[in-house]
Design brief:
Layout lengths: L1 E7 L6 H13 L4 E5 L7 H5 L2 E8 L2 E6 L9 H5 L5 E2 L5 E2 L9 H5 L5 E6 L2 E8 L2 E8 L6 H18 L4 E8 L3 H7 L4 E6 L3 H16 L4 E6 L5 H14 L2 E6 L4 H7 L4 H4 L4 H18 L3
Parallel strand pairs: 1-10, 1-11, 2-9, 2-10, 11-12, 12-13
Antiparallel strand pairs: 3-8, 4-7, 5-6, 8-9
């Protein structure tokens, strides 16, 4: 079983659309499980037109709770909180959205009036998408611990893959370089970095490359909307060449991709002969070669 993570330092470069089409292409000959670890804004199910099978609540965060029968109003907890999550003058009041559950308040409280408890902060959703299974995490509004929720999503995806003897897991990772990205990348066999030819995208590509290199995971680059700015296209290719990275595929700007998304379909299914679909086929073939070369 191989685990491929698709990341993008910059949001809005078409990562989820590419993951959806890669899944469809691979599922023609292999068993595939998809995982959406962009838990702050999951949307792979929308691109695939997937149907929800079941959903379960996830406790991946902890918060402080005050027992006011014990509290004497000393306000030592407020003074020790580095997140300014405890307010009040005569009696402490906890602001749950900013509380990190660090436990400093429980340690300093002279009356043992504060307890750290696990709370529900998200959900794990299982979808059916054509002949694939999709595992997706969704963080509740204002909640924290997105990295822990990503870990839970990946663990469940691996369990589902093992149970069904799946050969490939595609993980639709979040944009950026924060905790969710790190949690998505670790343990992967290969990373595909999706970018576009713009100065902002190239800058963010360089940042996420450093994250992937830290984990020593082999990577390749997919250049989406490759023809929108020739100068930036050359800059991305030069960066790849200077660092020994492969450009797996150049996907041209194609109205078929947003049209497919509007109809809740991967472009490879909705418009199989479109320029973007042909380029995605080349991406899948290039990715297969890279995976076959792995030890």
């Amino acid at each position: 079983m191989r685990e491929v993570v698709i990341l993008s330092g910059k949001g809005g470069v078409g990562k989820s659309s590419i993951v959806a089409s890669l899944g469809v292409i691979y599922a023609r000959e292999h068993k595939v499980v998809l995982a959406d670890t962009d838990v702050d804004a999951p949307n792979l199910d929308l691109v695939l037109g997937a149907k929800l099978r079941n959903s379960e609540e996830i406790t991946a965060s902890s918060k402080a709770f005050i027992d006011y029968d014990k509290c004497i109003g000393c306000m030592m907890c407020r003074d020790v909180c580095k997140f300014s999550s405890i307010i009040g003058t005569e009696q402490p009041i906890i602001i749950p959205y900013s509380c990190e559950g660090c436990g400093a308040c429980t340690v300093i409280c002279p009356e043992d009036a504060i307890e750290i408890k696990e709370v529900v902060n998200g959900q794990l959703n299982i979808f059916d998408a054509e002949n694939m299974l999709l595992v997706a995490g969704e963080l509740h509004i204002g909640e924290s611990s997105s990295g822990r929720l990503v870990d839970i999503v990946k663990k469940r995806a691996r369990q589902e893959a093992e149970n069904s003897q799946v050969e490939m897991i595609f993980i639709d990772g979040p944009p950026g370089i924060g905790c969710p990205v790190i949690a998505s990348a670790k343990g992967a066999d290969y990373v595909v970095l999706v970018t576009e030819p713009t100065p902002a995208a190239l800058n963010d590509l360089k940042r996420v490359v450093e994250v992937v290199k830290h984990f020593r995971i082999p990577l390749g680059i997919a250049l989406n909307r490759s023809d929108i700015h020739p100068e930036s296209n050359r800059a991305v290719k030069q960066f790849a060449q200077d660092n020994g990275f492969s450009i797996l595929s150049e996907i041209p700007y194609d109205k078929s991709m947003p049209m497919a998304v509007a109809n809740a379909q991967p472009v490879i299914s909705a418009y199989p002969s479109a320029p973007s679909s042909l380029a995605l086929g080349k991406l899948a073939a290039a990715l297969s070669e890279k995976i076959n070369e792995l030890p």
